[in-house]
Amino acid sequence: MTDAAELRRRTQELLAAHPPATTGRLDFLRARFDAGLAWVHYPEGLGGLGLPRSLQAVVDAELEAAGAPDNEPRRIGIGLGMAAPTILRYGTDEQKRRFLRPLWTGEEVWCQLFSEPGAGSDLAALGTRAVREGDDWVVNGQKVWTSSAHIARWAILIARTDPDVPKHAGITYFLCDMTDPGVEVRPLRQITGEAEFNEVFLTDVRIPDSRRLGEVGDGWRVAQTTLNNERVAIGGMRLPREGGMIGPLAKTWRERPELRTHDLRQRLLKLWVDAEVSRFTAERLRQQLVAGQPGPEGAGMKLAFARLNQEISGLEVELRGEEGLLYDDWTMRRPEQVNFTGRDAGYRYLRSKGNSIEGGTSEVLLNIVAERVLGLPAEPRTDKDVAWKDLAR
């Protein structure tokens, strides 16, 4: 059995054969994937060694100490945190071989085509249609709030393939090439001034049946794997002490004593403790993942993430007084990733408003926690057994 010492030996062999100082970044990442050191808990031949997830920290520490390049995980987070685990669980062998390596190295960026203008909180009510024509599916519809669509090569897509059954039953999951004819990406300018999100229009887009993930009509079950992983990726990220939004606030408090009041101190202490509790809870959740797939518990972490970010950024603006009302740049840009800590307090305050929407609205996640974590009775649903085509819209 491979243990930590053996993993260190394998990592040192990788570094000796591909010295980071003289090896191109992409070449090194490809070699790391082929050596099974990309994500050690994945199967052999797919970037891993079939080992416990906890051993990944051994590899990461060795590579970081050697100054090896990473795969820019924040830039390709949708691929790493959502597409990859779904492909691994439901994909064919051919799909796994085709998509996982360039996904992990960052050669191919992914986005998520789930939410629609008429199906945001009620995702199962989506209306984008996919109709079978021979070996292809012809897709028509509109998606919205799509991060990274402007730089993505591939998308995970759910579409309605049977309108004659209840809404959760007639959905199928696809892998969509964003460069195909009929795919149009338009920017959505946000309150921050940037267009980090997009809306995506699909007009007669042809997707081969070979890029279907899972069985026809089983897309809702496949999508739950994506959504559970998404919430863990957002709310359960690994942070050092005072990592994330609490860091800039604590730094301002220490460096600007003239801004302090007793009331602000009490509120800062509470949020600092809350941030630590959230950080340790996220660590426990990641350890639980060693035993299997993420469950609904990630919804609770994502809820805490949104609440904390909004409360912390609000206190930071209040602490800074008039300075907190300033905003550095309203230029219309289409960034490749969100940078919470690299911008000013005004940006953090505005951008954090989206945290309670993206990755599932807080209201929906409260229902998930209530029903699937706490076991409380489900809310009455009059549309549960009604065919999608007969739903009021």
Can I get a quick summary?
With 393 residues, the chain is of the alpha+beta class.
Write a structural description.
- The protein is globular and about 70 Å long.
- The chain starts with a helix and ends in a 20-residue tail after the last helix.
- With 393 residues, the protein is of the alpha+beta class.
- A hairpin with a 2-residue loop joins strand 2 (129-133) and strand 3.
- The longest helix is centred in the last third of the chain and has 27 residues, at 262-288.
- 40% of the residues lie in helices and 13% in strands.
- The model has no long low-confidence stretch (mean pLDDT 91).
- Strands 1-4-5-8 form a four-stranded mixed sheet.
Give me the strand/helix succession.
HHHHHEEEEEEEEHHHHHH
Number of helices: 11
Mean pLDDT: 91
Number of strands: 8
What is the radius of gyration computed over CA atoms, rounded to a whole number of angstroms?
22 Å
Residue share in helix: 40-55%
Q: Describe the strand arrangement of the main beta sheet, using strand numbers.
A: 1-4-5-8
Shape: globular
Largest sheet: 4 strands, mixed
- The proportion of residues in beta strands is 5-15%
What is the terminal separation in angstroms? 57 Å
Low-confidence stretches: none
Structural class by sheet pairing and helices: alpha+beta
What's the structural blueprint in terms of helices and strands?
Layout: H1 4-17, H2 25-34, H3 56-65, H4 77-90, H5 93-105, E1 110-113, E2 129-133, E3 136-143, E4 154-160, E5 171-177, E6 183-188, E7 197-208, E8 212-213, H6 219-235, H7 246-255, H8 262-288, H9 297-320, H10 345-351, H11 362-373
Parallel strand pairs: 1-4
Antiparallel strand pairs: 2-3, 3-7, 4-5, 5-8, 6-7
Helix pairs in contact: 1-3, 2-5, 4-5, 4-6, 6-9, 7-9, 8-9, 9-10, 9-11
